[in-house]
Amino acid sequence: MKHAFAKLAACASLALGLASAFAADPVKIGSVLSVTGPAAFLGDPELKTLQLYVDEINKQGGVIGRPIQLVHYDDGSDANKANGFTKRLIDDDKVDVLVGGTTTGSTMSSVPLVEKAGVPFISLAGAVVIVDPVKKWVFKMPHSDRMAVEKVFEDMKKRGISKIALLSETSGFGASGKKETEAVASKYGMTLVANETYGPKDTDVSPQLTKIKSTPGVQAVFVFGLGQGPAIVTKNYKQLGITLPLYQSHGVASNAYLQLSGPAAEGVRLPSPALLLADKLPASDPQQPVVTAYEKAYKAAYKTEPSTFGGYARDGLMLALDAIKRAGSTDKAKVRDAIEATKGFVATSGTYTMSPTDHMGLDLSAFRMLEVKNGDWVEVK
Fold first, then answer.
1. 35 CB contacts (<8 Å, ≥6 apart)?
2. 96 and 207 in one domain?
């Protein structure tokens, strides 16, 4: 009898041990980010943000009683490498959710893989093509390039501008921005009197700007790119003595753009999430507590200002974890459905409401129009 009891106790103990070990299996968040290369401007703060919050949430007990494990790779701003790393995350690392793709190119190279494997994918890239048309397993956090164009055109219209020069980057993000600018222009009464491009690795854009400067009728210049390129454009603009209003896209909505451009950025306008106004938001703004908490946490961890790109990463991770909590598991189909059912999710980049026909969940009100004044951001009312 004693022996049987001991055996039963041992079995029970083993079962409890196994149950405990199973319960402690990590929730695996996979991420392919451009931490180096031309898009490091975006990818570096994204990775730092993910690491910051994964560590913090694990200290608080993780999610659904399980720790979070971040499995990440650096694609070096190379879309082809992103495809290989995404395959590794799905096949070898067996991740539950993907948060990342820093760039549109990297994201789009990963899309066929996640769609085939049925893994929820929350992109941190900007082009509208990521979610339009809607793809079952793909969502995104940043405001779309189409929204950025519309926000810029709204502001131009208020200033009486109708003839513009577009200068876009030949990256996936820039090419999509060019396409959206061309498509939306007539709706806002805009005419593109000049349409130039530059490469993401170009170190001088003076030839294109000289051409724009000599084009008759140009009233403003709109630059669509990300990373260091738009800062080079801004410096060249100043060096050439061009005095026309200069607009950038949300691809450079970051204090790093100010640092790279220096005094040449004075007067530049661009659409941005609320994060760049963290210390200026009124207490009545629903985003204020979220934005200020992120800014405080990032500054404390890294002794530097956060960027809107890090904000997209924070929002993507939190959205994924919120969906996992609502799903009550990491079952991929249930998590996907929970992401799609997200309603009124307040984040640093806006308030998200997803649906089967909208896998971004933001409207134009999520953008603020900013201007650089005395080396700082101010909101244009």
1. 43, 44, 46, 47, 74, 76
2. no
